[in-house]
Amino acid sequence: MAGRLAGKVAIVTGSSSGIGQSIAIRYAQEGANVVVDYRKRPEGADDTKKQVESAGAKAVVVQADVSKHADTQKLVDQAWQQLGRCDILVNNAGVEKGADFWDVTEQDYDTVLNVNLKGAFFLAQAFVRRLRDAKLPGRIINISSVHEDMAFPHFSTYCASKGGMRMLTRDLAVELGPIGITINNIAPGAIATPINKSLLEDKEKLNALLKNIPLGRLGTCDDVSALAAFLASDEAAYITGSTHVVDGGLMVSYHEQ
Ligand code: BGC
């Protein structure tokens, strides 16, 4: 199939909805076969699979909870067994839990850090080991957040996880460059997805947020997947160790009134 990702195979975690689903479909449109990962919404994963297939690519659906070490290995094994290779990893699965710092529970801390950071860490490790053994190049794209850099009061666990992801990417760029693997973060701002459902339903909060976005609108999943496709393509061969922001100007926005 023609396209910038023709002949490639990608794992996209959390691709049963939101940004992950959009990336899986976009990759298929660019010619890649895709491992569609989901944790608890098989119907969403099936929907992604159908859309990948109508773009003319193959989709393999795998149930895996990236916070579990064994499941990260399962994803990589399934890609190689069912699709014969694995060139691109998109660590997209993520959760957030709002609470004042003094009320954060150990359970919520573990959930957020284990999905957002530990999951990305060990999935990248399993992905890299296979490529290193096969002496093949690869691409890792982490879906981070503007909050890898910018404070998000009452979301301290989320900020800690994304800040960790920021540093992980910088560190791994150095370790993985010599074996031909690039790694980059995409930092979305406020994108309309299921993760911020409660915000989207609260008109007052939403309007306050929109005032901080110079482009005056929320982002779409397609705004993010367009960049994810570029970063996975040969055109991005010399880009590693960086964060690429997709936020309508949110991070640099400051105004008095
Ligand atoms: C969070 C959203 C938030 C956005 C902008 C994202 O990373 O998931 O809940 O609205 O950042 O602050």
- What is the number of helices? 8
Low-confidence stretches: none
Strand order of the largest sheet: 3-2-1-4-5-6-7
CATH class, named: Alpha Beta
Order of helices and strands: EHEHEHEHEHEHHHE
N-end to C-end Cα span:
52 Å
How many E-type strands?
Answer: 7
Biggest sheet details: 7 strands, parallel
The portion of residues assigned to helices is 40-55%
What can you tell me about this protein's structure?
The protein contains 8 helices and 7 strands; from the N terminus they run βαβαβαβαβαβαααβ. By secondary structure, the chain is an alpha/beta fold. The chain has a single domain (9-189, 221-253), classed as Rossmann fold. It has a 7-stranded parallel beta sheet, sandwiched between helices. Strand 1 (9-12), helix 1 and strand 2 form a beta-alpha-beta unit. Helix 1 runs parallel beside helix 2 (42-54) and helix 4 runs parallel beside helix 5 (156-176). The N and C termini lie far apart (52 Å). The structure holds beta-D-glucopyranose. Beta-D-glucopyranose binds next to loops.
